[in-house]
Amino acid sequence: MRSRLVGQRTAVINQIRGFLLEHGITIRQGPAGLRQALPSILAEPIDELSPLLLRLLQDLGDEWRQLDGRIEHVSTQIETLAKQDENCKRLMGTPGIGPLIASAMVAAIGNGAAFIKGRDFAAWLGLVPKQISTGDRTILGSISRRGNRYLRTLFVHGARSVLFRPKSWAKYGFNPWLTNATQRLHKNVLGVALANKLARIAWAVLHRGGCYEPAFAAAAAA
User: Fold this and answer.
1) What is the DSSP letter of 95?
2) Whole-prediction pTM value?
């Protein structure tokens, strides 16, 4: 339900931006820029914006605010449920994994018994590279993007949140691997690679019934 509401909000934001672009008004990328600029555009409209279009933009802005409220309400419910579930609480001890990822993962795979190892779970998420074999050579391509798209997206966002806090890498046990990887990988590739690591670690935490340990993360990242 939250995913559907987020999709509806994205559609509303894109429609507002599209209407403004048609009339020569450009806003910097990201919802934050549009959220900040829209009130002033409505308060002091330019001649290119007709009264009808202004009413449409006002209605879309109201719909945006309503969707924000509904998303916040559903997110709060998810956080409450996650804090009451033992598996979710253990998963939330893993860096980059909050209530959304933890609850979605438990809802999708239970205790993870359907997978033999963490790499199988990462493959199910579509976070492993496609392999092309020619003769005695194996070429790794882009990730397969198969499997659970919603959960895969959440893990990538979780990985990016870790990358944005380099001071915490040592505490989490990621410092040697991430420090070397940042020098040779594009940030998007690195984000997916870290999402793969986090998925494998999360599966181990969930399936083995333990808690996150930085030493285990360092071994998994090696």
Assistant:
1) T
2) 0.79
